[in-house]
């Protein structure tokens, strides 16, 4: 048996959803740069789920389905109010809420593909309401109901703040959602596929995926980047802070990637947005600190920034609480998880690799009374 640590380079499934070839990312063959500049997040959801861009009529149908399903059952809101609210991380709340949603979905365990598609729509539609309702309840505020006349991106920002967002904020947030929607067989997507390959249900698959995304080596890195920027505090402190960490062989959050070697193609879009938004809000420091960190880490370690690095200062500029950054990643990535779950069901085989055993050889069982102290 040969063990490949972290399954690096192992091809574990085929998929027609997204590809990373020679550091180029595509969704269903469309370059991410093109989609980031031009597509709405709703179009990307359609693309991932149907493997084609929607016609106007198909897009309107999806928009309506999402809008009609965007409200949370009141039980979820009541449940949030029972949480030890000041101690709960929003990713934990999101993970629990998705699991709980499954309990209130009468079709949760129906395995027909039409029922699974309907669950995908319901889950995608409700993710913004889950994250924003929790964010408001923990501040003692009432959740805000979604509006049917706003886009997916605008609705999220509206439900979070209660104010209709500026067009520039909507444009930036939409772009961030497009950039995070899918990414081949990343850890959380793999988790979702492993879970549903047992023929478990959609809610279980997404709950498992949220758990995997939460970790700081994956989606949790965007919050960790912001923590680092806050700790550094000013451009003057960047050099010593980063060099000290590198000298101690500590990881710099938001850098490196298992697949990309030359760089993550999503990072440049977020970097441009970060520059624009931090300037607009009159707080360019986080962008300036970030570019300085980038030049040290690329210079010293030849590690380029990944999607999580500049998304931190983008979301901060939009006035979003730092611990909501990873839940926002999930609001977008659920579109990819759902596409992969539906694809897995369509051509399923249990995912069950092997482990090389490294424990002791055959041992004789000794009854507890005879084992000594
Ligand atoms: C959406 C996403 O999930 S994007 C990734 C988000 N995660 C992060 O930003 C966390 C920081 N980055 C990392 O931890 C890693 O680069 C990962 C997890 C993304 C990829 O990990 P792997 O492919 O397993 O690389 P691994 O962790 O084995 O690192 C290889 C070498 O590069 C170094 N390295 C990798 N990333 C970093 C980093 N961010 N800072 C400093 N050194 C790093 C490692 O220390 C290791 O060095 P060594 O060979 O001298 O021991
Ligand atoms: O692909 C990965 O390993 C992590 C990543 O960038 C993502 O999930 O967007």
Please name the defining characteristics of this protein.
Cytochrome p450-Terp, domain 2, mainly alpha, 3 strands, binds acetyl coenzyme *A, binds oxaloacetate ion, single chain, 373 residues, 3% strand, Citrate Synthase, domain 1, 3-stranded antiparallel beta sheet, 16 helices
3D structure, described in words:
With 373 residues, this protein is an all-alpha fold. It starts with 17 loop residues before the first strand and ends in a 27-residue tail after the last helix. It folds into two domains: 13-215 and 324-346, Citrate Synthase, domain 1; 221-317, Orthogonal Bundle (Cytochrome p450-Terp, domain 2). The longest helix has 25 residues, at 113-137. It is built from 16 helices and three strands. Bound molecules: acetyl coenzyme *A (ACO) and oxaloacetate ion. It comes from Robertmurraya siralis. Belongs to the citrate synthase family. It catalyses: oxaloacetate + acetyl-CoA + H2O = citrate + CoA + H(+).
Radius of gyration: 22 Å
Strand sequence of the main sheet, in spatial order?
Answer: 1-2-3
Shape: globular
Low-confidence stretches: none
The molecules bound to the chains, other than polymers, are:
acetyl coenzyme *A, oxaloacetate ion
User: Secondary-structure element sequence?
Assistant: EEEHHHHHHHHHHHHHHHH
- In round numbers, the mean pLDDT is 97
Organism: Robertmurraya siralis
Active site: 257, 308
Keywords: Transferase, Tricarboxylic acid cycle
Pfam families: Citrate_synt
């Amino acid at each position: 048996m040969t063990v490949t640590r972290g399954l690096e380079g192992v091809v574990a499934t085929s998929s027609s959803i997204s590809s990373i070839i020679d550091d180029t990312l595509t969704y269903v063959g469309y370059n991410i740069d093109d989609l980031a500049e031009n597509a709405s997040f709703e179009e990307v959801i359609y693309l991932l789920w149907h493997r084609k861009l929607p016609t106007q009529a198909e897009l309107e149908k999806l928009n309506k389905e999402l809008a009609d399903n965007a409200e949370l059952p009141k039980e979820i809101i009541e449940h949030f109010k029972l949480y030890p609210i000041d101690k709960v991380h929003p990713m934990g709340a999101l993970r629990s809420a998705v699991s709980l949603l499954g309990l209130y979905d009468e079709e949760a365990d129906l395995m027909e593909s039409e029922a699974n598609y309907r669950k995908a729509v319901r889950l995608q539609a409700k993710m913004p309401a889950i994250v924003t309702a929790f964010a408001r309840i923990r501040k003692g505020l009432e959740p805000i109901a979604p509006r049917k006349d706003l886009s997916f991106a605008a609705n999220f920002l509206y439900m979070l703040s209660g104010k209709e967002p500026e067009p520039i904020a909507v444009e930036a947030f939409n772009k961030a959602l497009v950039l995070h929607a899918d990414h081949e067989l990343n850890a959380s997507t793999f988790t979702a596929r492993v879970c549903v390959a047992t023929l478990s249900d959609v809610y279980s698959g997404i709950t498992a995926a949220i758990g995997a995304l939460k970790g700081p080596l994956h989606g949790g890195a965007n919050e960790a980047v912001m923590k680092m920027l806050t700790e550094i505090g000013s451009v003057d402190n960047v050099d010593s802070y980063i060099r000290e960490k590198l000298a101690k062989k500590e990881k710099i959050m938001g850098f490196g990637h298992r697949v990309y070697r030359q760089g993550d193609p999503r990072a440049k879009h977020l970097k441009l947005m970060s520059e624009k938004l931090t300037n607009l809000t009159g707080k360019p420091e986080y962008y300036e600190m970030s570019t300085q960190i980038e030049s040290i880490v690329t210079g010293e370690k030849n590690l380029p920034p990944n999607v999580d690095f500049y998304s931190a200062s983008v979301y901060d500029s939009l006035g979003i609480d730092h611990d909501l950054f990873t839940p926002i990643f999930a609001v977008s990535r659920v579109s990819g998880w759902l596409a992969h779950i539906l694809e897995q069901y369509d051509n399923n085989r249990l995912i069950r690799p092997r482990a090389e055993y490294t424990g002791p050889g055959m041992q004789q069982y000794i009854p507890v009374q005879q084992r000594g102290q």
